[in-house]
Fold this sequence. Notes:
With 242 residues, the chain is an alpha+beta fold. It has a single domain, classed as Sandwich (Jelly Rolls). Helices cover 36% and strands 25% of the residues. It has eight helices and ten strands. The chain is globular, with a radius of gyration of 17 Å. Mean pLDDT is 92; it is low at 236-242.
Amino acid sequence: xxxxxxxxxxxxxxxxSNNARIHRLDAGRPxxxxxxxxxxxxxxxxxxxxIRSEWDAFVAAGGRIPLIEEVVDEHQxxxxxxxxxxxxRRDVPIRPLADAFPETVAALRDVPNLRAALWSVLEPGTELxxxxxxxxxxxxxxxxxxxxxxxxxxxxETVTPYREGDGIWFDDTEPHAAWNRGTAxxxxxxxxxxxxxxxxxxxxxxxxxxxxxxxxxxxHAPVRAARLHRRLNFGQGPAARN
Length: 242
């Protein structure tokens, strides 16, 4: 087995064990999770108009972001284009894209235990069929930035329409699906946040998340994202013609 395969196999075993521990400890919570009283969400939602202005300026200037499968180097099961622009990974802004969004990156610093943040764009007609996330150690958070009618997220049996300036915080290890049945791009700020856990479980989870970061699919994502950004936006290479 090649080194990359051995790392992937080891990380996979650790994730399975960590998931089982977390599901025992953190069972029974509502999903999506309520955001009332989460001060980091309140601050991020308050920054939504500035975040939206930066996105609009980027698009107006001709800015483009790549398909998500190009960033993570594997298809995500989506039917239709899903684009992703990596902004922050493990507290580090991912340049050059992050340079276009100083207010957005500054607002993200208020999110505790943020593992990654990216722009997530579902083009009109794109569907992400029901699936289950592999990693219980993180929770997903979507802040609505540009949200047409007909764009929504379903977690279990709960359907939540995307709304500009509103957040959805959820455990993606429950079956979920997303779609954009509207006529314009659905744009969200997509965050991966370490799941709040007590004491020893939190420390064990942090170790597992650090190991996941060593997986080549994720370790090389910032380099791929920077290269794709340059090709798409500065005409360097074949991606500029995709």
